[in-house]
UniProtKB/TrEMBL annotation:
Superkingdom per UniProt: Eukaryota
InterPro entries per UniProt: Cellulose_synth
Transmembrane segments annotated in the record for this chain: 175-194, 206-224, 304-325, 337-355
Protein name: Glycosyltransferase 2-like domain-containing protein
Keywords in alphabetical order: Cell wall biogenesis/degradation, Glycosyltransferase, Membrane, Transferase, Transmembrane, Transmembrane helix
GO biological process: cell wall organization; cellulose biosynthetic process
Main location class: membrane
Organism: Malus domestica (Apple)
GO CC terms of this entry: endomembrane system; membrane
Annotated compartments: Endomembrane system
The keyword tRNA processing is assigned to this record: no
Gene Ontology terms, MF aspect: cellulose synthase (UDP-forming) activity
């Protein structure tokens, strides 16, 4: 979340404002509710949009009368308050059926209506909350987010088609498009880098320039510059080198699991092979899990669905690295296969917790 909250949203700020992101923001009541109330005239439609609370629906009709709103809230009956706060309040409504990533859709909808958001990140945190502290819940959450974002990318509301006509600027629509497409880009690229060079290395097929080749510098520069940029961002925001390593590890793990499964899930729903579903993430803090999280220890008590791809790829990279070393020593192909040898080595180092 560091990259989104402290890097991406700051970049969005000059283009129309950041997207609504889960929680931790202030939003005008009139911007969120006014259009829905005007579009949904009868009581049944309002109940489908805002739930069964009559008092809540009455209050929404008074959004331009703050004094009246204050009186209504103070005089609200305790039973009505309990109804609004209950976990089952959204049952029978449209909530959760139109989109899994409701925060993304809310931000996109409001920007399309002409509202502008402002990035505000004071030194003193304005919101405190809890997040996932174990790998299983983290990957489940990532899968749900990826599925919801890819849902948008392949729908009629794709920001590549629909966005340029709705958002304040073309660049702003491209920012929204990147958010919906990055799960696909990440899982395709990471699965490619984790398998293709390694399989070619096992079979002695060179893919990259030799060390003495001029183009070797190009590949080296791309790798070093991208990682240096990420490292600079992490260190400039007060984090440590270990934080950078952990972010690299999490990025790899999510790309080969959450982004893959989320993207596949979205395409299956699009083809009618699967119904949309919403599984909330468990954010209850377990003392032992919290200790391991604070120590930076990965908890691999996760589903086989997530663990199997990670372990399989690490084994493939270890095998290809061993074969590459042997080929370099006995056949003398170290110069020719140096980059292909470095790729599995880097994967092994970054994913050492899986081996451990």
């Amino acid at each position: 979340m560091r990259s989104a909250l402290k890097v991406l949203w700051k970049g969005y700020d000059g283009l129309g404002g950041p997207c609504v992101c889960g929680t931790g923001y202030y939003i005008k009541r009139v911007s969120l509710c006014e259009s829905s109330i005007s579009e949904a005239g009868d009581a049944m439609k309002l109940r489908q949009c805002f739930g069964p609370s009559n008092e809540f629906i009455k209050s929404l009709r008074q959004i331009n009368k703050p004094d009246h709103m204050f009186i209504q809230r103070n005089n609200a009956q305790p039973n009505e308050t309990q109804l609004l706060a209950s976990c089952a309040y959204e049952d029978g409504t449209k909530w959760g059926k139109e989109a899994i990533v409701e925060d993304y859709f809310t931000g996109f909808h409001l920007h399309g209506k002409g509202w502008i958001s402002v990035y505000c990140n004071p030194k003193r945190p304005q919101f405190l909350g809890s997040g996932t502290t174990n790998l299983d819940e983290f990957l489940v959450q990532g899968t749900r987010w990826s599925s919801g974002l890819v849902d948008v990318a392949i729908s009629k509301f794709s920001t590549l088609i629909y966005g340029p006509f709705k958002t304040p600027t073309f660049l702003h629509s491209m920012c929204y498009a990147e958010l919906t497409l990055f799960p696909i880009f990440y899982f395709l690229s990471l699965w490619g880098f984790a398998t293709i060079p390694q399989l070619c290395l096992l079979n002695g097929i060179p893919l990259y320039p030799q060390v003495l080749d001029t183009y070797f510098i190009v590949f080296s520069f791309i790798f070093l510059s991208s990682h240096s940029k990420h490292l600079y961002e992490v260190l400039a925001m007060g984090s440590t080198f270990q934080q950078w390593v952990n972010e690299q590890r999490i990025w790899m793990m999510k790309s080969v699991t959450s982004h893959l499964y989320g993207s596949v899930d979205a395409f299956m729903k699009k083809l009618g092979m699967r119904e949309a579903s919403f599984f909330p993430t468990n954010k209850v803090n377990d003392v032992e899990q919290l200790k391991r999280y604070n120590w930076g220890v990965f908890d691999f008590q996760t589903s086989l669905l997530f663990l199997a791809p990670m372990v399989a790829l690490v084994i493939l990279n270890m095998a290809s690295f061993a074969v590459g070393i042997a080929r370099g020593i006995f056949v003398g192909e170290l110069d020719k296969m140096f980059i292909q040898l470095f790729v599995p080595f880097y994967v092994i180092v970054m994913n050492y917790p899986i081996i451990e």
